[in-house]
Amino acid sequence: MKWLPLWAVGLFANSYFLLRFLSGDQLLWVRLTNYFLPWAGLMLASCFGLSVVFKNRKLSVVLFIPLFLVGVIYAPLFWNCQPTANAGGQKIKVMSYNIWSNNSRMKACAAVILKESPDILLLQEIRPEQMSALALELRPEGLNMAFDPRTEQAIISRYPIKGSEAWFWKNRSQKAVLEAPLGLVTVVNVHAYKHGWLERHRLMEALLVGDVIPEKGPLILGGDFNTNDRSETYRMIQLHLTNAHAEAGCGFGFTFPTASKFWSLRLLGSLPPFPLPALIRIDHIFYSSHFTTLKSYTVSDSGGSDHLPIVAELALQDQGRIIKGAVNLNP
Q1: Which residues, 6 or more positions from 270, have their beta carbon under 8 angstroms from its beta carbon?
Q2: Are the beta carbons of 116 and 301 closer than 8 angstroms?
Q3: pTM of the full predicted structure?
Q4: How far is CA 202 from CA 6, 115, 213, 240, in A?
Q5: 85 pLDDT band (50/70/90 cuts)?
Q6: Rounded CA gap, 160 and 93, in Å?
Q7: Interior angle at CA 233, CA 13 and CA 292, nearest 5
Q8: Pair 243, 229: CB distance under 8 Å
Q9: Which DSSP symbol is given to 267?
Q10: Beta strand pairing status for 219-224 and 283-287?
C-alpha cells in the first residue's frame, strides 16, 4: 500500500506517452501534461530514486521508462549552453515580448528592450496607449514601427519596413517585410488565441499555408503562441521552420507566468496573493533555413509583464538571389 502513490505516478506517466503517441492532443489531460512535462520529469526522478534506494525493481522499471523518455526530449537543451560560433552572414537579434495589457510600467518595458537592443522586436498584447508611451521611450533609438491596434501587435525594427498588414482572424497575426542589409526579410508576429486548442491549431495552420510556407525568402515567425513544445501545433510549425530555443537554448527557458502575475488561493481563506515563478514556455521564435541560430535565451526581467521576453541571435546567410524574391506588402 505504501508504494501505491509511486505506482500511480509511473502508470500515469507511461499512459501519457502511450496516449500521446496514439491520439496526439485529443485528450485534455494529455494537453495539460504537455505543458508541465519538465516538472513531471522532476517528479519521476524523485520517485525513481526512492524505488532504487528501497530496491523495488518492478517499480523502478515502470518509472525508468517515462523518465528516460523525458530525458531524451529535454537533455539536448542542456547541451546547448555554449553560443554557436558565427560562420559568417549578417547577425540579426530578434526579441519577442508580450507586454500584457494590464501592465502600466512602460518605462520598465523600455528599459528591458533598450538593454537587449534587438534589431527586430515583436510585441504582443499592447494597447494603443501603451504603444504611445513605449514609443516615447524608444524614440531616441530611431526605430521603425508598424503597430496594429486591432490585434494589439507591433513590429519594431532597425531596418526600414517596406510594408505591413495584420489579421485578427489569423491568430491575431501581423506580417511585415523589412529591408535588411543583405536583402528583404519577412517577419510574422503572432499572439495565438487562448480558447479552444482545435481552433487555435486550425488558425495557425491557415496562417502557415497562406502566409508562411509560400514565402521563398528569409522568414522569422515569433510571438506568444499559447502552446508548448510538445503540442501538435508546435510540431506542425516545426515541419517547416526551426525553433531557435531548440537549436541554441540553454535549459527549459520558461516564459510564463512571472513574478508580476499574482495568484490568490481564495479557496483556502483570506490568504494574500502571491507571485508564481515561470512554469511553462509558450513564447517562441521560429525561422526559415536562410538563418542559423547563434544564441537563444529568456530574459530574466519581465518589465512588469506576465511574460518574460525571449531573444534569438540569428545569422542570415548571404543568398541574394533568393532574398530578392521576397514579396513587398502594401509598398
Answers
A1: none
A2: no
A3: 0.90
A4: 38, 37, 15, 16
A5: low
A6: 15
A7: 105
A8: yes
A9: G
A10: antiparallel
Task: For residue 165, give the H/E element and its range.
Answer: strand 161-167
Which residue is associated with the grid cell 514556455?
281
Per-residue pLDDT tens over the stretch 201-243: 999 999 999 999 999 999 999 999 999 999 999 999 999 999 9
Residue with cell 510538445: 230
Q: Is 248 helix (H, G, I), strand (E, B) or coil?
A: helix
Number of alpha helices (DSSP H) and beta strands (DSSP E) in the chain: 10, 14
Cα 9 to Cα 7: distance, rounded to the nearest angstrom: 5
Question: Is residue 88 packed enough to be buried (19+ CB in 10 Å), middle (13-18) or exposed (0-12)?
Answer: exposed
Instruction: Tell me the three-class secondary structure of 57-113, residue by residue.
Output: HHHHHHHHHHHHHHHHHHHHHHCCCCCCCCCCCEEEEEEEEECCCCCCCHHHHHHHH
Rounding to the nearest 10 degrees, give the CA dihedral for residues 321, 325, 326, 328.
130
Pairing mode, strands 144-148 and 153-157: antiparallel
Sole residue written with cell 518605462: 107
Q: How many CA atoms lie within 13 A of 166 on its CB side?
A: 18
State the average pLDDT over residues 135-160. Answer: 90
Contact 293, 319 (CB under 8 A): no
Residue with cell 524574391: 325
pLDDT in tens, 293-302: 999 999 999 9
For the ranges 3-12, 91-100, 167-176, 255-264, the lowest mean pLDDT is seen at 255-264
Coil vs helix vs strand at 35: helix
The three cell numbers of residue 201 are: 491549431
Q: Give the closest residue to 96 by CA, choosing from 285, 242, 231, 270.
A: 285
Local structure of 298: helix, strand or coil? strand
In the numeric block, which cell numbers belong to residue 285? 521564435
Residue count of the chain, please give it.
331
Residue 154: other Cβ atoms inside 10 A: 26
Name the one residue in this structure whose C-alpha cell is 539536448: 76
